[in-house]
Structure formats: C-alpha cells, structure tokens
Amino acid sequence: MKSSRLPVLAGVVLFVMCLSDAFGWDSEYRQGFALSRFVERSNLIVVGQVIEIEYVTRENIKGRYTTDITVAVDQIIKGKPNISKTRVKFMIRGGRRLIDMSVPKFAVGEKVLLFMTNSDEGYYVNYPYDKLCPYRAAYGKRLIKDDKVHLVYAMKNDKLKSVRMPLDLAVQLSKAAIKDKDAVVELEKDIKDAIVQRTGSDTNLSQTLVDRLMEEAKEIVDKNTETETQESQNQD
What we know:
Layout: H1 6-24, H2 27-31, H3 35-40, E1 44-57, E2 65-78, E3 87-93, E4 111-119, E5 122-125, E6 141-145, E7 148-156, E8 159-166, H4 167-179, H5 181-197, H6 207-235
Antiparallel strand pairs: 1-2, 1-4, 2-3, 4-5, 4-6, 6-7, 7-8
C-alpha cells in the first residue's frame, strides 16, 4: 500500500470507530445535537464569515498538521473573541498533508454560526459529547445559507433528521438558553416533534412555529434580564 493512502485509511478507521460509539450512546446521542446543549458547552458563540485559512505545521501538537481559521465576527452571542471584537482565530487538526475526518471542514467565504470552547491550545469548535466523533452535525460549526442554519434535532427510523432554522431564531434561542437552559429545552421539544411528525422532504419549520418560538425565547431573555437587573439594584 502506498504511504500516501495511509492518512486516508486512518481517517476511515477513526470514522468507523466513532460511528459505532455514537450509536452506542443512545439517549445521550439523541439529545446531543440540541441547540441548548451546544450553548451549555460553549464559552464563545459568534456569527461570522470565514476570511482566512492557513495550514500550519506545529511540532508541539500531536499529529503536527493543523489549520488556522480566522473568522470576521458579525455578532457575538456569548463570550469574547480572542483576537479582537471583530475577529476570532482558532485551530483545527489536519491540513494539506493529513485529512482529519474528526473535524468539520471550512472554506473561505462561508458564513457560519460557531459554538466554541477554549483550551490551552486556544479556541476550538465545540462538540456535544465527551468524545470526539466525525459527525459534522455534532460539531459547533453550523453553516448559514439564505439566513438559515442547518441543525440536527432528532432521529426517526435510526436516521438523522434535520431542520433549516432561521438564523434570527437560532440566535434568539441561544441567548435564551444562556439565561435559562431548562426553559429552552422545553421549547426544543416542539421543534423535535415538528421534525419527527413531518412528511416529505421539506426541512423548514412552519412560520407559525417560528413566530411562537421567537416570542417565547424573547420573553425568557427579557424576564431573566429584568430579574438580574433587580437583583443587582438590590445589592447596591
């Protein structure tokens, strides 16, 4: 076997191993893709556009081959970017010489909703489990197209089921989950029900459901903000 095929083969093996692990998690796996779960496990959430991709070889990193991604930030939902208020830079494993199937892919010009966590190596794209797994749906990179975000919420007949959620709703639900995760989990039950019960190939939520979720998520934010303000004034 040619040596050039070894990285690809290694990636395939990793994919199969993690695929097996993922389905072994059962209920944990089924709830792991929820927006509220990403918010809980992230300390930086931003909306932005990928503006630079740089392949870097790092001697101090296992695997050595890495890629630095720079995103121009349009909106900060949670946390503080590490470069400036308008820039965030983070590393993913894999590069030109080594394809790592356990990380999401990026392209210059993409508009993304990112759920991230920081470590000693800097920020990295978050995932909803304690194990790495090469499901792009499981990672905190959500691609934005036509002002909608592709999310996976439930399983039907052992298949992943997705929804195209308006970006404004995804942002509002994220803000609400920061304030009260349990309340948003209740709202997400309606999203899961809508996904499981639908027929056909349409992946959009009904406008009626979108409007109601927007209103209730905003109420969660407003109510908790008001409570926090009152508590702060009482302490003064």
